[in-house]
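Task: sequence in, structure out. Protein: Phage capsid family protein.
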Amino acid sequence: MPTSVELREERAGLVKQARDLQAAADAEGRDLSAEETEQFDRVMADVDAMRSQVDRMEKLEAVESDLDRPVERQAEGIDSERREHRRGEQRAEAREAEERAAFAHFLRTGEVRQSLRAGEERHAGLMAEVRDTIIGTDAKGGYLITPTRVTQQLVKVVDDMVFMRRLATVHTVNDAKKLGIRTLPTHMADASWTTEVAAVTEDTTMAFGRRDLEPYLLSKLSKVSLRTLALSSDAESIVRQELGYKFGLTQEKAFLTADGSSKPLGVFTASASGISTGRDVAGSNTTTAIVADTLFDVVYAVNPGYLVGDKVGWIFHRDAVKAIRKLKDSDNQYLWQPGLQAGQPDQLLRFPVYQSEHAPNTFTAGLYVGLFGNFSYYHIAEVNAFAIQRLTELYAATNEVGFIGRIWVDGAPVLESAFARMKLAAS
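Result:
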């Protein structure tokens, strides 16, 4: 089985094949022929497919690395305080194991064991109906707030799927109330030169703003067959993966294109509450295509002070990436570079490129086609509780059980000057 490094090298080789095709056509001063275009697209499709293969191999290698680490032996002569601390940890682990077993039992049967009811009561202030429904009618299933570890694992599944969550600043709140985020829409003016005893000039330009993040209810339905639940030794994992996939798709789309009305505000949505049209850059783009010079214009539209750290990058749809891969700079060098190191995404002008099927991909006059910026200035607020409802009877005719997951989430860009949005030229 090839390693992730070997796969990346093979992927880089495929990229070189595609570039050689384009270079040969450029040298002859012509466009790619129909046969060459078909070959180019086929090679680049293999490049995209190998990207997923590389990601899977890196995750596998990371897990294997963790399993190979030796278990640390407990030091002899440990004092009573440390032994008691360990006993406390063991009791907590035992309680967690009991909750996990009870939760898996709920997923398979709809019956709620006593070990989960205490957790419901702790959250009664947030969702009183959850506690009442569960305790009142065990046999009917109803709502259930998942154990803490299960919630964390489900959130991690979503994080792995949604690159915006990995890059953004995430705030966890205990209830579905507003979280005020301070913004700075107008910066302070330059300092003034003064003599030793002159009065200091007061600044009157700087102004602070406030953006309220109010977690909104997000829900998704997943159906699992009765046979799968009955035969599976880990029903929790099945439900977690299914709901994680559905919540991931919904959140990624919202963080990119939602309008902010009872939902997050997306980075591709022009809004005075997020990124206004003042951050749009059309540059030399035509009404239907991206031009290389405009990519430079977009980068230099963002203050260099924001271009520090590992949260800076581009967002494009794969259709836009396909076009950008063919662009060159004034030295005839390709602007797009494949990631060669483990865990490193592809790059454009030295910055990572993140692809999303939910990014705009309609190449029509005046529409958005990409975005660049520091995504740590996109803030997400979510409630630290996840509820699952088990639908026992609704899908009985098809031998399935429905699971509805519910969580509260909001998100928005809080500093528009950290972003620049690329659009096509107006008609």
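The CA atoms of residues 12 and 338 lie 7 Å apart.
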